[in-house]
User: Fold this.
Amino acid sequence: MQPALHLQRHGWQLSIVPVDARGRVAPSACGGALRPDTALVSVMHANNEVARIQPVGEIAALTRPAAAS
Assistant:
């Protein structure tokens, strides 16, 4: 999170997508946060504190159409 906050302090716009009650990021929430100028999507794949693995494949699939345009 600190590298993202560093970019924000230097003028980059940052969108933080919340997790649900089980600590899972909804792919649709990530897709909804994409903007035409999105340059980076970062997700912590596995979290040892809440024993959650994020659906990075589904999230990546949502970013591909945006990257192609």
